[in-house]
Design brief:
- With 294 residues, this protein is of the alpha+beta class.
- The protein is 48% helix and 20% strand.
- Among the domains are: 5-50, Helicase, Ruva Protein, domain 3; 54-145, Tetrahydropterin Synthase, Chain A.
- It has helices at 5-15, 19-28, 33-50, 86-101, 107-112, 120-131, 176-193, 205-221, 228-246, 265-277, and strands at residues 58-65, 69-77, 114-115, 118-119, 136-144, 149-156, 161-170, 281-291.
- Strand 3 and strand 4 (118-119) form a beta hairpin.
């Protein structure tokens, strides 16, 4: 079959792949459009496999908020300029639309979502063929909105770090803008101080055990090890100090102009913000923190 310019251009319009690659694909498939599209997407998968060992530490964290949920995902790439590429951005926007309008619970769900008649993963394969980099969706997480709550959304350094917080309150929220600002402030806190858990109960058991081992080793190495009956007390004291640094609600709220008393996040929300807004209670109930490349 003769491979005409109009046929090549039609394939290019379908896939966004360069003219020469389209012509080659059509030649190999004897002008069969569907088979040519499939071939190009298989080539995209081949590119991904070939470059899987290449570090994809660039890209962006994307944050989405709707009336009933908030979500985050990472779209990674190898080099920073690619994250500004029109095709990369279009792929990310397609994924954002999928999250906004569909029930997405995982990276696989996101890749399999269909937006405007196109599958996200098919478009990803097209982009892989065009850009020839290791590009992929790496992480996804979602928070379902609970009653009487607000989301705070904060993106740091053009998507290097993305944080979503959810604050729940008791009372009448007469100033929702102030509530959302408080939620954003806590999101900025999480971006800056990288908590690993919302509260003590959410800290992984292995993390606590590791900190106990470190504390014990530090005490023994100091040459001033206490009597056995006091050793555990010192270990517990050191672990508690570490937890205040890695647990979000126990961290000292970092905005000194709003927090001159140096209250913890938990106490700041209850004793300052809740009182200012006339609420019975205000607390963080959930958060997501994604950092690019991690």
């Amino acid at each position: 079959m003769q491979i005409t310019a109009s046929l090549v251009n039609e394939l290019r319009q379908k896939t966004g792949v360069g003219m020469m690659q389209c012509k080659k694909a059509l030649t190999e498939t004897d002008g069969d459009m569907d088979k040519a599209v499939e071939l190009l997407r298989k080539q995209g998968a081949a590119v991904a496999a070939k470059r899987a060992d290449k570090a994809a530490k660039e890209g962006r964290i994307y944050l989405i908020e709707t009336a009933d949920k908030a979500a985050a995902f990472e779209l990674s790439c190898e080099t920073e300029p690619v994250s500004n590429n029109d095709d990369f951005v279009a792929l990310a926007n397609m994924a954002v639309k999928a999250v906004e309008t569909q029930a997405i619970a995982s990276v696989d769900d996101l890749k399999n979502a269909v937006v405007d008649g196109k599958k996200v993963n098919d478009v990803l394969q097209d982009v892989l063929v065009k850009i020839q980099e290791n590009i992929d969706f790496r992480k996804f997480a979602e928070i379902k909105k609970v009653p009487n709550s607000v989301f705070g959304v904060y993106s740091h350094m053009k998507g290097k770090i993305g944080v979503i917080t959810e604050l729940a309150f008791e009372g009448t929220a007469s100033d929702e803008a102030a509530l959302k600002q408080a939620a954003k402030d806590i999101a900025m806190q999480a971006a800056a101080f990288a908590p690993v858990a919302l509260n003590d109960a959410a800290v992984p058991a292995e993390t606590i055990e590791k900190e106990k081992e470190i504390a014990k080793a530090q005490i023994e190495a100091s040459g001033k090890a206490p009597k056995p009956e006091f050793l555990q007390r010192q270990i517990d004291g050191r672990v508690a100090k570490v937890l205040k640094e890695i647990v979000l609600e126990d961290q000292e709220f970092f905005m000194t102009d709003k927090n001159p008393k140096k209250l913890s996040v938990k106490d700041y929300l209850q004793e300052v913000v809740a009182k200012q807004l006339g609420l019975a209670s205000l607390k963080v109930v959930n958060f997501i923190r994604f950092e690019r490349g991690n």
